[in-house]
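Handout, page 2. Input:
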Amino acid sequence: MDTKKFHLLLVISYLAVFVWSMINPHDYFTWFLEVLPAVIGLILLFIIYPTFRFTNLVYVLIFFHAIILTIGGHYTYAEVPLFNWLQEIFNLDRNYYDRLGHFAQGFVPAMVAREILVRKKIIKNNRWLFFITVCICLSISALYELIEFAVALLTGASAEAFLGTQGDVWDTQWDMLFALLGAISSLLLLQGQQDKTLKSTLPE
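Output:
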């Protein structure tokens, strides 16, 4: 499939999920907060598309991350049905969709950040590249937690579903840990494939 057509397919597929998520969500305030990062990301990708195109690997990862965010916006992270079912089946202490979301928060940005660093030749040493990429992902995770904190202070109980702590006083620390694990996992699993893709099929 032509690259541009593939990118268009990803956009159309996401928009279909986005429209679905708008129909009778848990509450529109939480929906707005959860899908906003995906919408901002999509807008930024459109803006830079004429001058900087990521590899298909990164676009696919961004697509799935956006889907995770949008599903979380529809149900809230604490009430995603599949993970409620898993909670009941395995007698878990919480709905773990939130953990999946924060794992993705490290997994996907790691490939995005690494590709930018490599293509712009900002960091050439592989060890430093690994370290700086992980640091960027942790910074993103910390920023998101600060945003959650600010929303909670400004809106009070209205932000409870957005926070999704599910009664865990260490929820913030767990969120950042899973983002860290996601970033490290992404680099260990995909950096080789990313390098091959960059060498063979750089975007126009």
